[in-house]
């Protein structure tokens, strides 16, 4: 006849009896107390009994001890200070960069004003040089007309004197006067030629000065444009730094 397995009630009663006697309710102890039973069945019944007998442990207190709370507060303050150190340093660096950019911008502004002043002065000098060239052109034209008139006068005088010489041939005194007049006319013509040559040389010098002024003005304008471009770049960087703050 097959052996009948022990029941839950039997296993539970044996386990309670063992506990009351101060003995641990193990599988072997329960089986020995019952005198029968499969270890697997007894094990299953013990698990069920232990689950019914077990009382849930009391939840731990959620209150933070004062010492832990104080340490946690100190840690939070230290963490906030250290975490903000990088931001404060970046802000200080940004403010320093802004100050440098403002100083550079002011310096460029002063340089631009200086270049503008120099450009104005060079423009005035160029206009004066152009006025001098125009004046020299007028002098050359005037001297050219005077030279043409002097040559005409000298030619007419030579023709007249030649006629007089033919008319009074043999008169040495008149020949001497005629020769003197011709020499004076020639000397006058040479003086006019020298004046014209001097005016032409002055014109060449004025034109050269004008070209030099124009070259200097171009250079100043290039520097002025470069200064404006650099100042615009500095302003853009300043705006970026302000936007970051």
Q: Termini distance?
A: 93 Å
Report helical residue fraction. over 70%
The Rg value, from CA coordinates, equals 62 Å
| Global outline | rod-shaped
**Secondary structure tally: strands:** 0
Structural class: mainly alpha
Mean pLDDT: 77
Which residues form runs of ≥5 with pLDDT under 50? none
**What fraction of the residues are assigned to beta strands by DSSP?**
under 5%
How can the largest sheet be summarized?
Answer: none
Question: Please, how many helices?
Answer: 5
Order of helices and strands: HHHHH
Question: What would you say this structure looks like, in words?
Answer:
There is one protein chain. This protein has 245 residues and is an all-alpha fold. Helix content is 86%, strand content 0%. It is built from 5 helices and no strands. Helix 1 (8-20) crosses helix 2 (27-34), helix 2 crosses helix 3 (39-53) and helix 4 packs antiparallel against helix 5. It is rod-shaped and about 190 Å long. The relative contact order is 0.08. The model has no long low-confidence stretch (mean pLDDT 77).
SSE topology sketch:
Blueprint: H1 8-20, H2 27-34, H3 39-53, H4 66-167, H5 172-244
In short:
With 245 residues, the protein is mostly helical. The protein has helices spanning 8-20, 27-34, 39-53, 66-167, 172-244.
List keywords for this structure.
coiled coil, KfrA_DNA-bd_N, rod-shaped, DNA-binding, DNA-binding protein, single chain, DNA binding
